[in-house]
Amino acid sequence: MQTKIFKTDDNSIAEAGRILKDGGLVAFPTETVYGLGGNALMPDSVKKIYKAKGRPSDNPLIVHIADLEDIKPLVSEINDNAKALIDAFMPGPFTVILRKSELVPDTVTAEMDTVAIRFPENETAQRLIRAAGVPIAAPSANISGKPSPTRASHVIDDLSGRIDAIIDGENCMVGVESTIVDATGDVPVLLRPGGITYDEICEIVPETVIDEHILNSLPEGEKPLCPGMKYTHYSPEADVYVVEGNVRAVRKKINELLEQNSDKHCGVLTMSRNTYNDALIIYGGMTNKEYAKGLFANLREFDRLGVDVVFAELCCDDEYSMAVKNRIYKSAGHKVIKTLDL
Ligand code: TXA
Ligand code: MG
């Protein structure tokens, strides 16, 4: 299949919208990561999404809308907490789980009786969804298991020849996926940390709890609330180790590790002004927000440069840490080295 590359002018968006409406697949930018869109009301289109990504069919998709009014037909119930969260965070890097209506095909929700809904803030995404005139099912536009795409070039690398079109739009501002909150019960549950922090959610609904699996690997045989959590995620070709602690202790530990791995091509993703000899260094940013924005792109860049092992510094604790740790722990297959705080 020849994949068309569109720019973001009106004619291109209109044509991409038609492709989506007719059941084709189009990748598009959002403020979090690039999405791989298909018509959410057409089961055949949704099946093509799973196939193009190589995604297990028991991992449900998020339905994207571009108008708050479009939520109602997709759900059977919106309680007061859900309403408050929607008012506060939509449009934005936020996804709410609600009970689904009959309109939503089982292929989208992997047979669950709930549906994930997101209203992206990114203007190109909104224009495309409006042009399609239907809700758009969209997972991240990467091959399953790889780091999520935050630039059009990442999508071209992963999905060229597998989908109808890619919109070559802006780089993603947030860099990690949306925050997911299950608002079906009496107490909202944070299932995936992301662009909206837990603190911000608690300002709206203070009772919100955090799903315990966000930072831990899932014990064998246990079923997660968010099905995607059980799969390998965000993994570059390189082997990733997270080294966590204060700047001095992290630097000392990474220097030891570099010495032990001197036969390999090593890279370090830094969060400090630390420098390392004999390693390829990418500076990821001082704050977790900055580090998150470039994280997936930086992991892909280490691969492009042929690095075998990446040591990722993690030496800043703030309200954005949960989102960064949730992603990078998975990239590292939970190989996390906690150094002593000096
Ligand atoms: O920022 C984002 O959310 C991006 C952009 C493209 O919007 N999308 C994204 O989709 O990250 P994806 O498919 O890569 O991740 C969706 C996650 C999966 O872990 C899936 O299991 C979970 O959402 N999910 C979807 N529907 C669900 C449901 N009904 N209940 C619980 N979890 C659900
Ligand atoms: Mg994904």
Describe the structure.
Helices cover 30% and strands 20% of the residues. The protein has helices at 10-21, 43-53, 80-89, 106-109, 123-132, 152-159, 198-204, 247-260, 288-304, 321-331; strands at residues 4-6, 26-28, 35-39, 62-64, 75-77, 94-100, 114-118, 136-137, 165-167, 179-182, 189-192, 209-210, 239-244, 266-270, 280-283, 309-314, 336-338.
Summarize the structure.
The protein is an alpha/beta fold and 342 residues long. It has 10 helices and 17 strands. The strands form 2 sheets. Strands 1, 2, 3, 4, 5, 6, 7, 8, 9, 10, 11 and 12 form a 12-stranded mixed β-sheet that branches. A 5-stranded parallel β-sheet has the order 15-14-16-13-17, sandwiched between helices.
Keywords:
2 domains, DHBP synthase, 12-stranded mixed β-sheet, about 350 residues, alpha/beta, binds threonylcarbamoyladenylate, binds magnesium ion, Rossmann fold, globular
Q: What is the CATH third-level topology name of the largest domain?
A: DHBP synthase
**Cα end-to-end separation:** 56 Å
The CATH superfamily title of the largest domain: DHBP synthase
**Rounded average pLDDT:** 95
Major beta sheet summary: 12 strands, mixed
Give the quaternary arrangement of the chains: single chain
Class from secondary-structure proportions: alpha/beta
Catalogue the ligands: threonylcarbamoyladenylate, magnesium ion
Number of helices: 10
* Highest-level CATH class of the largest domain: Alpha Beta
| Secondary-structure arrangement, i.e. CATH architecture of the largest domain | Alpha-Beta Complex
**Count of the separate structural domains:** 2
Kindly state the percentage of residues in helix.
25-40%
Content of β-strand: 15-25%
**What integer value in Å does the Rg equal?**
20 Å
Could you give the count of β-strands? 17
* Low-confidence runs of at least 5 consecutive residues: none
Described by the principal axes of the CA atoms, the overall outline is globular
Q: What is the chain-wise order of helices and strands?
A: EHEEHEEHEHEHEHEEEHEEHEEHEHE
